[in-house]
């Protein structure tokens, strides 16, 4: 059953600026706050911020006139968010081993710790998604707990 599903950013999307990443977080928070436990919403907002920042930093969405869109849904015990960008030459990929003091290269690795992520698309447009269960700990946390 769909508890909450929405495309917040409308047909034109949000301008591809870092200010819009904050706007995206607020839109998702306003839309989903009542549907999620607080700690889950924290993860969701972190994911939205990271995915939106990637759209701005790594794709044509961040070029003058560029836009990106955000989708969020709570469905079947999962919360899912996605950012749709305007593409570029690189693909979303976890940086294998960022330098110890590197200031970047950690966003997607962090999202993989908090849930599952993936992408689809091509050089002209990509949709990058992240999801996690509403109640159970994120998959990686379960694995860690069992290993102890
Ligand atoms: N939407 C995207 N489109 C194209 N390439 C992407 C996208 N998102 C990420 N990437 C690629 O994947 C790499 C890893 O992304 P990740 O978010 O983990 O690190 P980062 O954005 O470089 O740094 P940080 O997120 O720590 O500030 C990026 O450097 C970029 O090359
Ligand atoms: Mg990033």
UniProtKB/TrEMBL annotation:
Any coiled-coil ranges, and where?
none
- What residue stretches are annotated with the Histidine kinase/HSP90-like ATPase domain? 17-114
Q: Which Gene3D superfamilies match?
A: Histidine kinase-like ATPase, C-terminal domain (3.30.565.10)
Q: Does the keyword Transferase apply?
A: yes
MF terms in GO: ATP binding; protein serine/threonine kinase activity
- List, alphabetically, the InterPro entries matched: Anti-sigma-factor_SerPK (IPR050267), HATPase_C_sf (IPR036890), HATPase_dom (IPR003594)
- Pfam families attached to this UniProt entry: HATPase_c_2
Report keywords, A-Z: ATP-binding, Kinase, Nucleotide-binding, Serine/threonine-protein kinase, Transferase
State the protein's name.
Answer: ATP-binding protein
